[in-house]
Amino acid sequence: MNGSVSRIDTGALPGRPCSAAATLHVVGEKWALLAVREIFFGNHRFEAIARNTGAPRDRLAARLRSLEQAGVVERRPYNERPPRYEYHLTEAGRDLAPVIRALLDWGDRWVLDEPPVVMVHEPGSVPQPGSTDTRVEGGHGHDLDAAWVCRTCGEEVVMNTLTVDVRAPGWDRAGPTPVEAAPEAAPQ
Questions:
Q1: Which of 122, 118, 124, 78 is nearest to 100 (CA)?
Q2: Measuring CA to CA, which residue among 64, 74, 6, 10 is closest to residue 34?
Q3: Angle formed at CA 23 by CA 171 and CA 65, multiple of 5 degrees
Q4: Which residue from 21, 79, 84, 149 lies 20 to 30 Å from 141 (Cα-Cα)?
């Protein structure tokens, strides 16, 4: 699929037309997101992904196929006989890193007493093409404390500074807008 994600007609999905709903249609199943997490962590082979997610093998295989078809992951051969493949995130898959980080942060704050996994920021390190591993020999990383910053104004975003501008035709913030009936023709 060359790294492009399958586009979804939001009108074909139930409920409010929304990018979040369309995204969850592609990656919202538990095993799909956990597979993305593992590939993001650098585990590319099926055995490692299966072990680290705890997913049933048949379900994981189905999720990886759907992620590949959607353009989120790509398979790369690592063995010819027998044919074996590794899974790597496409550009679209790598763009899910903030989603994985947000889920980790939320779980650390609201679900777990101690974080079992911590993102480490290695300033000045650059990943090799196709890799998410940015560690450098002798690097001096620190636990990531990321902020949500508006690229337009540079300000940190906090919830009370956000509003919603609904741009889907036939919808407003409360939901679907009533369809106005055409005026009736006057009797002649």
A1: 118
A2: 64
A3: 145
A4: 149
* pLDDT tens digit sequence for 50-74: 999 999 999 999 999 999 999 999 9
**How far is the CA of 97 from the CAs of 34, 59, 72, 184, 185, in angstroms?**
12, 22, 12, 54, 57
- The answer to whether residue 97 scores a pLDDT higher than 90 is yes
Q: How far is CA 4 from CA 66, 91, 98, 167, 183, in A?
A: 14, 8, 19, 24, 45
- Please classify residue 89 by burial: count the beta carbons closer than 10 Å to its beta carbon, then call 0-12 exposed, 13-18 middle and 19+ buried: buried
Backbone angles phi, psi at 13, to 5 degrees: -95, 150
pLDDT tens readout for residues 122-160: 887 766 665 555 555 556 788 888 889 999 999 999 999
